[in-house]
Amino acid sequence: MVDATPIRPRSAATVTEWDYEADVVVAGYGIAGVSASIEAARAGADVLVLERTSGWGGAAALAGGFIYLGGGTPLQKACGFDDSPENMKTFMMAALGPGADEEKITDYCEGSVEHYNWLVNCGVPFKESFWGEPGWEPPFDDGLMYSGGENAAPFNEIATPAPRGHVPQMDGKRTGEKGGGYMLMKPLVETAEKLGVRAEYDMRVQTLVTDDTGRVVGIVAKQYGKEVAVRARRGVVLATGSFAYNDKMIEAHAPRLIGRPGAAIEEHDGRSILMAQALGADLAHMDATEVAFVCDPQLIVRGILVNGRGQRYVPEDTYSGRIGQMTLFHQDNQAFLIIDEASYEEGAAATTATPFLRVQPKWAAETVEELESDMGLPAGALQSTVEVYNTHAAEGSDPLLHKKSEWVKPIGTPVAALDLRGFTLGFTLGGLRTTVNSEVLHVSGEPIPGLFAAGRCTSGVCAGGYASGTSLGDGSFYGRRAGISAATRA
């Protein structure tokens, strides 16, 4: 439920007593918040983190743990992959638009290797091994995987494919419960604590406090139901996540996600965005969303995906997030996987991190014509699709959508269809417009003094498309910038 407390900024003159005080006050103890707190503390600031829940972690600790890094990280090199900042940028500009922030992406790519080393120096472990199978994430503790469709059409023809999904090493991962993201957060929090970072829990931030010059000097929050005032001597960092669970904001900005939030937590209510907007903060890409497609990629890659007209629309070997966006945005959320019995059994027996996403066939038949009829498709619609696919698949090619030859195989019989209509969910990518130094920008284009932000409450490197790891990646990268800026721009 969204808090009904007035969101307009408070004047510092009305605050009779500060309940807490620090040089830098960070709202949110997820990936952006912990990264900000570390760098602010290293810059010599006294840091206080305000966390809404009873413990650190946020959505990051529940995530699979992908951090999107490249440009030639030690892990990429150890696994035998060449990459460069320029190659990484070429892919990200093509895959994360339209309207991707070139300045941020250039900055992110050029700083990616250093950021990897920073994470390692903070104690984040990475195993020097590559997982090359289709999937949402590695099922074991491998450290590197393709996570954005880099090795699939059309991107494998735009930039040289290189895996950039870096995953912290962790035993006993449970997807969606305690994933690799936990082993990203745990050492970072321990690093912050060693630096003297303090944290106060059950802190629901309400609004910002400004002085008579318009500078942000604090936050009003509720702790255990009581209103408290928190003074920030140097700066405030907002790092409270997306607005995926704010129904009103979803309806206004990203209506295709109505009723289908995913890969987010209920605390992602957009409060920080609204608090900054009340100061005149600018926004960017509020309609942009990640869209997960909830079917095991080990099955998808072995069949053909068709829409409600029985036509293919996406290469099945690409990133599942791209499949999700193509399905929800361009196919009215209508999708069916056509797969023969042998391929289904092969996919069902393959190693995967998400066996719970193995959907059972809804229809099965001896011929495509019979399957088409059972599915209620117009006569000839599915038959012509399969005929064209099989004609080229016999030669190991897919000239229509360019699925890689290793996954191209004629569809035989018996044949089945998986009903994947509505199998999408996601989270928002838009938010506060910030500089590469994580300053929150006013609609005038000028930074709002004393206010910084990072993570999913901001518009980061993703403007339309998505790659797994870009949220934890730019959240930690620009979280660091926010901490440095808040600590040093007094």
TrEMBL record:
Keywords: FAD, Flavoprotein, Oxidoreductase. It comes from the Bacteria. Pfam families: FAD_binding_2. Residues 23-469 form the FAD-dependent oxidoreductase 2 FAD-binding domain. Its cofactor is FAD. GO terms for biological process: steroid metabolic process. One of its GO terms (molecular function) is steroid dehydrogenase activity, acting on the CH-CH group of donors. This is FAD-dependent oxidoreductase 2 FAD-binding domain-containing protein.
